[in-house]
C-alpha cells in the first residue's frame, strides 16, 4: 500500500505529468486544427526584411556567463540558508553566529566582484 | 469523495481498486485546479486590456459578447482570442532545431502549472500538503528559465537569441533576491509548509502579517516577481521596440500561446505566493464579526486580485528600464538589502525571551 510519504508526493508527480500533457495537447490541437501551408519565405528566420546573413548562434557577451557563475554561488548560499532559517529558533545564538561567519565570507566575495566591476553593464 | 473507494474496489478488485481510486481522485482534483487557473489566465488578459484601457482613457475590448447580450460586451474576447490562436499555423523556421523548438513551450508551461500542486487555497483545500512546499515551488519556478533559453537557442534567430540571453540573466539575478526574501519568511515561520506559514500569521489582525516586520522583503519579493515574469517595467527580454518580441519572435499560433499562458500563470502564482507569505493568505484583515464570517478562500482570492492589479498598474505606469538599470537594481540594491535584513532579523531573534514577548515583537515571534 502507498505509505503517507509517497501518498503526499504522488499528486505532485501526477500534476507534473498533467502539466506536460497540457502543453503537448495544446501543440497537438494547434497542429491538427491550424492550416499548414509552408513556403520558403514563410519559413525563413525573422530578420528585418532581408535574408539572415549568418548563423544566429554567435559569440555573446562574457558578462552573461559571469552572471551565470555568480548565480550558482549565490543560489548555493540560499540553499544553505533555507534549512538554517527553518531551524533558527532551535539552533539559537550559536547557529546565528556560525551563519554570520559564512555570510561574512560570501559578502567579502560579493564586495570583491563588485569592486572588480563584474556587475557593471556599460 | 472517499465514499467512491468501495465502488472502485468492487469494479477492479481489492488489489487494483485502491491505486486506481487514488489516481482518479487526484486527477479530478488536479483538473479542479488547472481548469479554473486557465480560465483565470484567460480573463486576466481581458482584465489587463480593460484596466490599461481605462487608465489611458480608452474603452478597451467591448465587442465580443455571449449570445448577443449587450452588457456582456467584451467578455467573450478571451474565448475568441483562444479560438483564433488555435486556428493559426504553427511555423517552424528552416534554421530551427525542430525538437527543441517544440519542446521549449512545453518546458515553459509545465513548471508554471505544476507549482500549483502545493498551493493551499484555504486551511483544508490543498492538493499535496507536503513539508517541503516552498522548496518545491522555488525549484519549479527556477525551471521556467529553461523554456526561455531553449526557445531562444532553438529558433536560430538573432532577436530570439538576444532575448533569451537577456531574459535568462535577468531571471536568475532576480531569483537570488527572491530566495533571500524567502529566507526571511522562513526565519519567521520556522516551516517550509505554506499552510504553516499562513498559520504563523494568525493572531487577530493584519498587524500579525509578515508584511509588517518584513516590509522591505515584501517589496523586494514582489518586484522580483515582476522581473521574474518578464513583465513591464522589466520586459527588456521582449522589448518590442528593440528586439521585436525577444525569445518567442519566431513562434506562432498555439506554440506562442503556450508561452503566453505560462507567463500569465506565473503572474498569478507570484501574486498568490505574495498573498500567502506576506499578506496572511486566507486570514481576514481583522478577526471580528463581519470579516471572519466571509469564507477564507474569498479573502485569498481578493488578495491575489489586488496583487494582480498591481502588475497591470505597473505596466500602465512605468516606462521600461534599461538593461543595465535592471541588473543594477537586482545585484546592487536588492541583494545587499536582503542580506542586511537577514542579519538584522536574525539578531532580533536572538533577543531574550522576555523581550520577544513584549510589544510589538510579541505579534510575530
Automatic annotation (TrEMBL), chain A:
A single GO molecular function term of this UniProt record? quinone binding
State the GO CC annotations: NADH dehydrogenase complex; plasma membrane
How this chain sits in the membrane, per its record, is: Multi-pass membrane protein
User: What is the catalytic activity of this protein?
Assistant: a quinone + NADH + 5 H(+)(in) = a quinol + NAD(+) + 4 H(+)(out)
Q: Where in the cell is it found?
A: Cell membrane; Membrane
Return the InterPro entries for the record. NAD(P)H_OxRDtase_bac/plastid, NADH_UbQ/plastoQ_OxRdtase_su3, NDAH_ubi_oxred_su3_sf
In terms of one coarse class, where is the protein primarily found?
A: membrane
Top-rank taxon: Bacteria
Chain ranges passing through the membrane: 12-34, 64-85, 91-112
Alphabetized UniProt keyword annotations? Cell membrane, Membrane, NAD, Quinone, Translocase, Transmembrane, Transmembrane helix, Transport, Ubiquinone
Query: EC?
Result: 7.1.1.-
Q: In UniProt terms, what function does this protein have? A: NDH-1 shuttles electrons from NADH, via FMN and iron-sulfur (Fe-S) centers, to quinones in the respiratory chain. The immediate electron acceptor for the enzyme in this species is believed to be ubiquinone. Couples the redox reaction to proton translocation (for every two electrons transferred, four hydrogen ions are translocated across the cytoplasmic membrane), and thus conserves the redox energy in a proton gradient.
How would you summarize the oligomeric state and partners of this protein?
Answer: NDH-1 is composed of 14 different subunits. Subunits NuoA, H, J, K, L, M, N constitute the membrane sector of the complex.
Which family does the entry's similarity section mention?
Belongs to the complex I subunit 3 family.
Q: In its UniProt entry, what is this protein called?
A: NADH-quinone oxidoreductase subunit A
Origin organism lineage: Bacteria, Pseudomonadati, Pseudomonadota, Betaproteobacteria, Nitrosomonadales
TrEMBL record, chain B:
One CC-aspect GO term: plasma membrane
Where on the tree of life does the source sit, at the highest rank? Bacteria
> Single GO molecular-function term?
oxidoreductase activity, acting on NAD(P)H, quinone or similar compound as acceptor
One Pfam family assigned to this protein is NADHdh
Task: Indicate how the chain sits in the lipid bilayer.
Answer: Multi-pass membrane protein
Q: Which reaction does it catalyse?
A: a quinone + NADH + 5 H(+)(in) = a quinol + NAD(+) + 4 H(+)(out)
What the entry lists under InterPro entries is as follows: NADH_UbQ_OxRdtase_su1/FPO (IPR001694), NADH_UbQ_OxRdtase_su1_CS (IPR018086)
Predominant localisation class: membrane
Provide the alphabetized UniProt keywords. Answer: Cell membrane, Membrane, NAD, Quinone, Translocase, Transmembrane, Transmembrane helix, Ubiquinone
* GO BP: any one term: aerobic respiration
Keyword Transmembrane helix listed? The answer is yes
Described purpose of this protein according to its UniProt entry: NDH-1 shuttles electrons from NADH, via FMN and iron-sulfur (Fe-S) centers, to quinones in the respiratory chain. The immediate electron acceptor for the enzyme in this species is believed to be ubiquinone. Couples the redox reaction to proton translocation (for every two electrons transferred, four hydrogen ions are translocated across the cytoplasmic membrane), and thus conserves the redox energy in a proton gradient. This subunit may bind ubiquinone.
Name the protein family. Belongs to the complex I subunit 1 family.
| Protein name from the UniProt record | NADH-quinone oxidoreductase subunit H
Which species is this record about? Answer: Nitrosomonas eutropha
